[in-house]
Specification:
Strand order of the largest sheet: 5-4-1-6-11-8-12-10-9
Number of strands: 13
Structural class: alpha/beta
CATH superfamily: Spore Coat Polysaccharide Biosynthesis Protein SpsA, Chain A
Distance between the termini: 45 Å
Number of helices: 11
Shape: globular
CATH topology: Spore Coat Polysaccharide Biosynthesis Protein SpsA, Chain A
Oligomer: single chain
Strand content: 15-25%
Largest sheet: 9 strands, mixed
Radius of gyration: 21 Å
Helix content: 25-40%
Number of domains: 1
CATH architecture: Alpha-Beta Complex
Length: 308
């Protein structure tokens, strides 16, 4: 049985929803508390036992390479200032992974980004992480999926239930229920109107794919904007072999969306021992201020206090 040893991280996006902050840095380098988005997702890959991470990058994405590299000047400065704790943390980052980098010169879709890593993947099953999706889980989401793959030896895609009115924001699967939270995927529909959606099970940015997907990507016709869509290749794969949907255990934050990014920042701050108590007090004080102001208005009601 071939194990999942490699993962593809397509990170060449321009991050236009976060302009101007992303004018000079990749979106995945925006910090959630004290670590960039990409750090959390790489930690998930490591927690799943993945050995090699292949970053598919674009222009102006050197910050990702620099982040996972050694910084001699910074280390010397911290050593001179006897900041041993910070020095260890910086060393830990550069030792997290041995990365590979591929430049995607023209953004031609997720399918194209995956296809660019074909020669580095070879004839092995592999994982794909969309770094916009940060998943807080006791057992790393990808580790949960690898356990499923090792049992069935087929492609596995992370899914989650969404409000039916939100289906137009996701790829939606047509499922055949196998057991609670586990489905055979019969079809996939990209961003359907709620009335046309085959379910409310949305595809989330974690995939385990068999190497047969590369031949299908090579024969996939470009769609709108000349992009090669991974969804189209997976739909073709469904005709050759089983593909499963797995409803993972954990909480997903869409950090590619401003609201999702703020939600992740708040929740990770409340888990961070360095700032947790002070930040929690700030939120409660802010709520009290809001509640007092709302109560002064005619018919004002601030609603229930925040949980926790």
């Amino acid at each position: 049985m071939k194990k999942i040893r490699k993962a593809i991280f397509p990170v060449a996006g321009l991050g236009t929803r976060f302009l101007p902050a992303t004018k000079s840095q990749p979106k995945v380098m925006l910090p959630i508390v004290d670590k960039p988005i990409i750090h959390y997702v790489v930690e998930e890959a490591l927690g799943a036992g993945i050995e090699t991470i292949i970053f598919v990058t674009g222009r102006s994405h050197q910050a990702i390479e620099n982040y996972f590299d050694i910084s001699v000047e910074l280390e010397d400065f911290l050593r001179e200032k006897k900041k041993e704790g910070m020095l260890r943390e910086i060393n830990d980052i550069s030792n997290l992974i041995t990365p590979c980098y591929i430049r995607q010169r023209v953004a031609r879709g997720l399918g194209h980004a995956v296809l660019m890593a074909k020669d580095l993947i070879g004839d092995e099953p592999f994982a794909v992480f969309l770094a916009d999706d940060v998943i807080d889980a006791e057992v790393p989401c990808m580790k949960q999926m690898i356990d499923v793959y090792e049992r069935y030896q087929c492609s596995v895609i992370a899914v989650m239930e969404v409000d039916p009115k939100d289906t137009r924001a996701y790829g939606i699967i047509e499922p055949r229920d196998l057991q609670k939270g586990f489905y055979q995927i019969l079809d996939m529909v990209e961003k359907p109107d709620p009335k046309d959606a085959p379910s409310n099970l949305a595809v989330i940015g974690r995939y385990i794919l068999t190497p047969e997907i590369f031949d299908l990507l090579e024969s996939t016709e470009p769609g709108k904007g000349g992009e090669i869509q991974l969804t189209d290749a997976i739909k073709a794969l469904l005709k050759r072999q089983a593909v499963y949907g797995y409803a993972f255990q954990g909480k997903r934050f869409d950090t590619g969306d401003k609201l999702g990014f703020l939600e992740a920042t708040v929740e990770y701050a409340l888990k961070n021992p360095e700032v947790r108590e002070g930040f929690r007090k700030y939120l409660l004080d802010l709520y009290e201020e809001y509640a007092t102001e709302a109560a002064r208005r005619p018919g004002g009601d601030a609603g229930p206090p925040p949980k926790g």
